[in-house]
């Protein structure tokens, strides 16, 4: 896995061997960043269920001004920190070790509002629903925030309108998809 573009272009990132993380392939990551490229310069980026940190590192490499990475797995957090050091992007990043909902509570107290929130939770556990419900009542999201969820192809989002969100677009791949979500305007 490598950084595709920007200041850290072509640098290889470390990953961890565990069943708890599934690194997003370079091809899927490139497609994702082609879609969001106009939103990246000077944005604040939140990466939930960060794994190796590759998505937030790519965002920082491409011009995001700040990224917060949230990961519960201690080995993954160590990997994130090594990758941030290696890419020389650590000064633009904050790493939070812990549960994503608890991290949202903490971030809400900081007054920070994110432009892009990306999450890649473990598939089939409905964690994205739990996080989206918490984000809906959170001050870290506003009408301009773009929430992107990576999930398996079978994940349904039929509850979104009930919590004030709508699907902006869906990009499907062979085994998974990215769902782009925003507040209902």
UniProtKB/TrEMBL annotation:
This is 16S rRNA (Guanine(966)-N(2))-methyltransferase RsmD. It is an enzyme of class 2 (transferase). Signal peptide: none annotated. One of its GO terms (molecular function) is nucleic acid binding. Pfam families: Cons_hypoth95. SUPFAM superfamilies: S-adenosyl-L-methionine-dependent methyltransferases (SSF53335). It comes from Coprococcus hominis. The keyword 4Fe-4S does not apply. InterPro entries: DNA_methylase_N6_adenine_CS, RNA_MeTrfase_RsmD, SAM-dependent_MTases_sf. Its EC number is 2.1.1.171. Transmembrane segments: none annotated. The keyword Methyltransferase applies. Keywords: Methyltransferase, Transferase.
């Amino acid at each position: 896995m490598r950084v595709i573009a920007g200041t850290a272009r072509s640098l290889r990132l470390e990953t961890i061997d565990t069943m708890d993380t599934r690194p997003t392939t370079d091809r899927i990551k490139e497609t994702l960043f082609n879609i969001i490229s106009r939103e990246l310069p000077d944005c604040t980026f939140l990466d939930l269920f960060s794994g190796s940190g590759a998505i937030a590192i790519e965002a920082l490499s491409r011009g995001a001004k700040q990224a917060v990475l949230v990961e519960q797995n201690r080995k993954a957090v160590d990997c994130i920190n090594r990758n941030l050091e290696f890419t020389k992007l650590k000064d633009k990043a904050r790493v939070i070790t812990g549960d994503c909902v608890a991290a949202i509570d903490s971030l809400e107290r900081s007054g920070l509002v994110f432009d892009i929130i990306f999450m890649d939770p473990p598939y089939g556990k409905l964690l994205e629903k739990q996080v989206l419900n918490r984000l809906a009542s959170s001050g870290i999201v506003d009408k301009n925030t773009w929430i992107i969820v990576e999930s398996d192809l079978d994940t349904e989002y039929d509850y979104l309108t009930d919590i004030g969100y709508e699907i902006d677009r869906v990009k499907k791949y062979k085994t998974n998809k990215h769902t782009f979500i925003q507040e209902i305007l």
